[in-house]
Here is the input.
Amino acid sequence: MTATDSRFADAIAKLPAALRAAGFRGEVERDSALRAAMSTDNSVYRILPDLIVAPRDAEDVVTAMSVIERPEFAHLALTARGGGTGTNGQSLNRGVILDMRRHMHRLLEVDPAGQWADVEPGIVLDDLNAQLRPRGVFFAPETSTSTRCVVGGMVSTDASGKGSRIYGKTSDNLVGVEIARGQGLVSSLGDAPDWAQPMLQAAERAARAGRAAFVANTPRLNRRFTGYDLERACPEEGGFDWWRLFPGSEGTLGPITRIRVKLRPLPKQKRLVVAGFASFRDSLAAALPLMQDDPTAIEVMDERVQALASEAGLLGSLPETLRPKGGEALAYTFVEINGDSAEALEAGLAACEARLRGLPGIRAVHVASGADEIRELWAIRSAGVGLLGKVEGRARPVAFVEDCVVPPEALPAFLDGFLEILTRHGLSFGIYGHVDVGCLHIRPALDIDAEEDRARLVEVSDEIYALVNRHGGIFWGEHGKGVRGAYLEGWIGPEAYEALQGVKAAFDPAGRYNPGKLVATDTPVMGIATTPFRPFNAPEGDALEKAFRCNGNAQCLSYAASTPMCPSFKATEDLRHSPKGRADAMRAWQEGRRTGVQTVEEADLLGTLDTCLGCKACASSCPVQVDIPSMRAAVYADVYARKARPLTDRAMLLAERLSPWLVRAAPLTRPFWPLARRIFERVLGVTDLPGSLARPLPRAARLSVRELGSESLPERTVLVWMDWFSALYDEATQSDVLRGLTALGYAPRFVEMLPAGKVAGDLGDAAGFRAMADRLSAALRKGAATGAPMIGLDPAFVMALRQDYRKAGLDAPALLLPQEFLASELRAGVRLPQATGGGLSLFTHCTESTAAPAARKEWQAVFAGIGLGIETPATGCCGMAGMFGHKDRHQEMSRKLFDLSWAGPVAGAEEAAATGFSCRCQSERLGGKALRHPLGLIADRLDAPA
Ligand SMILES: Cc1cc2nc3c(=O)[nH]c(=O)nc-3n(C[C@H](O)[C@H](O)[C@H](O)COP(=O)(O)OP(=O)(O)OC[C@H]3O[C@@H](n4cnc5c(N)ncnc54)[C@H](O)[C@@H]3O)c2cc1C
Ligand code: SF4
Ligand code: SF4
Here is the structure.
């Protein structure tokens, strides 16, 4: 260890205590899994930070900085991090990371006249706009990452997206900012304190000196150049707007603690036109003529992205006319037209449609008007970048030349040049983008592990940089600079660059804020090839392969309570407890075992895995299906081959294996269960186990596995398969399903329960899983041979069979969910008995909502088929997830999750059902409301006998 290293290590070791002593209130952590989670973003780079500090508010940031500015800590780098969605390593650095997303996410004040709002920098864009919506105003810059990027990150990258031709970039939608230093806060909305004057005066001197060169060297485009905007900081009319230097500054001038954003009235009317073209070139060429109709946004998506969307089943919301037929290639153009007057909008729309129909290569045009349809269609375009990440193979799309901007009229020629470069380098790619402002997103596919592809990354980057300059464009048109700041000096010229350096030196004389980004001072800028790359591919057959595939696009960090992914992140707002964080930790751990340089401690890794609810939302909703529970099982198998498993896990493994006997013995053990339950709860550290064991159903409703196939089954028999929780505890649901199906005219027979091996599979007991899964698969095959339809009672059980059995290569016939079976009956023309009434609500299981997204629509169709209306509110995870919510150590998280998205709708529901056993248990114990199975509601409404 060098003297510098040991000075650094010493400072990092002392900083937590110094922060506490100074009264810092947020978290200060060195947990290796958290550091791994903070070491990546959506780029191909990885820089391991040393300490994570999560301030509670602006004052807390000041406290932290007052300590970090002391001489003994003055050499530590300090980098603010928001949503971590940067595509070029913007928020990655060594030293201290200030996690602004975790606590600092409040909407602080809204101007009564609706002109502006003050926010903390960690507020998520969609969260801000959801809170503003009732006031009829919004913050206009719209990114594809609006579910997880934060306003502080948007300001610091000067983000933009759809609609920027009309609304501009983030910097066009700001009123001012507040920044922090150890001495206190400086707000552009008030007078600067005396101690800040020398800093601001030095910045003004540098900005004035370089302004003319800056103006001369930056193209006059809608997507203007920012990242120390010397032009607007020194307005022609005089004065010095120092805060104008911060948009696009990427944390290099220090932390922003408060932002005043400009608000705009929400347009009253919105329409979206989607046009299908024979080729991407045709769809691109449509942009210029379409601009005559002054739309809010024009976006495109090429044939490759369209094909990926089609493969992923995302084109379901498109009308038939716009879906590709028989392998045909289609490119799409999306045109959004907004306004307040319906008549004016209709006129604009008619003009746009007429223009589209006359354009070369046009195949079909569709106009969407309802808010839901518009949202669904835009979601197809927004999914573009995630879909590109889904590409199989070692070479996958990489963001490094993906947001170039050129004048819109230069786009076709620019695209020719771009494609020529990619073809010459033999690279595949997909394209989408904002053509109205001349911004195309193109991600060439590279294998970053391969030296020749890393060399190619540099060559292609240099060539595209030169191409953009030839077309009078900007290399960093949307996603900020990050390690691509290395091009800045050559691009902006020596005089303007020197001014940028002067601004940096004024705000950051010690060069410690996000060092190595944007401009060089004493620290050289990081380069696109000199910044460490993250491992890109796992060795062949690695059980943690998907962890290497995680590309950090952060879709799993959505803030919205009513979306399923990811409950543990929503409850903690702690990156290590998200799919991304877990994938980062597993990748680093696995790599450490291979290289012998371990950066993630096993205990820290197990800590992040323990908080995963196993809901499997990531396995379905992550664009590259980073299936955390499956990889967790592999880690457990590895770890617990070396050491003893926790007692609760051993008890659960045993209980699953013995469950057929437990179910059989239930009539005898029922009276003793209340006492046994209390003992189990105390010994195993669990709580609120189900209150009673189920009594068996009447013999006529049951069927043993041996009997399957040995007797002929009556007409309209439906075989019902159960998991061991439902069989052992859920008498009410068994009865509801029996009564409901019978009332609908079916003859349900409950097949003897055989455990699926789900617990064994989840806990990494591969042999136990295989033995149980083989037995159940054989029984399912016998059941399928009877020809009777087969349904599974609990969604988590059905989904485990669909996902885990398939993955394990088991030959097990599929079970249908009850609604899938009944909806298919309706589609086949079966008429169901009729009932009347409403006032019903239904909550679906989160695993079902993500893996079988049609669930809510299908239940609605089933209830409609009986003449009943039913509400199906969107919810996230209820917080129970099998045994998760029963464990004492998870009580806080489990309750928080229930409160987040279930408590309100459950309390407000008149008569309600839930499809999942876990969700019914959770609603009863935390919401005080016993929910039914939906077939129970049907049974009651059809007056089925008890
Ligand atoms: C799939 C995908 C799609 C994308 N689409 C778009 C798009 O449509 N439009 C677009 O503009 N971008 C897009 N991006 C890029 C990215 O989402 C934006 O750059 C976004 O603004 C980053 O915000 P963040 O909160 O994630 O910030 P981070 O990535 O966490 O940080 C970005 C920079 O801001 C700095 N920073 C963060 N908070 C503060 C603070 N409080 N004080 C000082 N500095 C701070 C960080 O140090 C860092 O340099 C996309 C990225 C992905 C992965
Ligand atoms: S886990 Fe999936 S959704 Fe989350 S960051 Fe990784 S790739 Fe993206
Ligand atoms: S299984 Fe659920 S809780 Fe676990 S990482 Fe995936 S989404 Fe998060």
Observations:
- The first helix runs from residue 3 to 21.
- The chain has 37 helices and 25 strands.
- The chain has a mean pLDDT of 94.
- Residues 279 and 936 are 52 Å apart (CA to CA).
